[in-house]
Amino acid sequence: MKKKRLVILPHDVSIITGKSIRQAQRLLKDIHFVLGKLPHQPVSIPEFADYMGLEVEEVERVVY
Questions:
Q1: What is the Cα–Cα distance from 25 to 21, expressed in whole angstroms?
Q2: Is the dihedral of CA 54, 57, 62, 64 positive or negative?
Q3: What sign results for the dihedral spanned by CA atoms 13, 19, 24, 27?
Q4: How far apart are CA 19 and CA 6, in angstroms?
Q5: Side-chain-side CA neighbours of residue 21 (13 Å)
Q6: Measured between alpha carbons, how far apart are the two ends of the chain, in Å?
Q7: C-alpha 37: how far from its chain's center?
Q8: Half-sphere exposure of 23 toward its Cβ, with a 13 Å CA cutoff?
Q9: How far apart are CA 45 and CA 8, in angstroms?
Q10: Domain ranges of the chain
Q11: CA 31, CA 24: separation in Å to the nearest integer?
């Protein structure tokens, strides 16, 4: 059974949005700010999906 990740990475965001890695990093930084997270706290897949208005299952399909 493949292990599931809890967090989303810039590479995943790049694939999902079709943006460059740098733009994906900026998007994750924006999500950090909006959610009031500290720099060491990662963005979870459900948080990303909610922010982008996507279904968690859609995002998980791309990530896994």
A1: 6
A2: positive
A3: negative
A4: 22
A5: 2
A6: 12
A7: 14
A8: 8
A9: 5
A10: 10-63
A11: 11
| Confidence (pTM) | 0.86
Structure tokens belonging to residue 7: 């967090």
C-alpha to C-alpha distance for 6 and 60, rounded to whole angstroms: 10
Q: What is the pLDDT along the chain (64 residues), one digit of tens a residue?
A: 567 889 999 999 999 999 999 999 999 999 999 999 998 999 999 999 999 999 999 998 888 8
Kindly state the greatest CA–CA separation across the chain.
35
Return the percent helix, strand and coil in the chain, to nearest 5.
Answer: 60, 5, 35
One-letter amino acid at 9 equals: L
Residue 46's contacts (CB-CB under 8 Å, 6 or more residues apart) are: 56
Q: Which amino acid is at 57?
A: E
